[in-house]
Amino acid sequence: MDKDKIKEIIEAALDGSIAEVDGNEGKFTASIIYKGFDGLSTINRHKIVYSSLNPYIQSGELHAISLKTYANDDEET
User: Is residue 77 a part of any domain in this protein?
Assistant: First the structure.
């Protein structure tokens, strides 16, 4: 699995989202902006993203991913 495929999966699952993905060899980082995150805790935001990636995590294609999630109005820090 490569970072372009992860970006595609996330953006397809979260309509209107923007994902930036970096990394390789099964270990990735992703920064995701999505209006659907508004009002949600970090844990619930991550659950939404992980639900789209879960089949790839379970199969071993995706070993690890670190997430930063933002609603459209959040400031990136």
Answer: no
State the pLDDT confidence band at 25, using cuts at 50, 70 and 90: confident
Long-range contacts of 34-43 (CB under 8 A, 24+ apart): 34/69, 34/70, 34/71, 34/72, 35/71, 35/72, 36/71, 37/69, 37/70, 37/71, 37/74, 38/71, 38/72, 38/73, 39/71, 40/71, 42/69
Quote the pLDDT of residue 38.
94
- CATH code for position 10: 3.30.300.90
pLDDT at 74 over 80: no
Q: Which residues span the domain enclosing 16?
A: 3-70
pLDDT mean over 42-61: 94
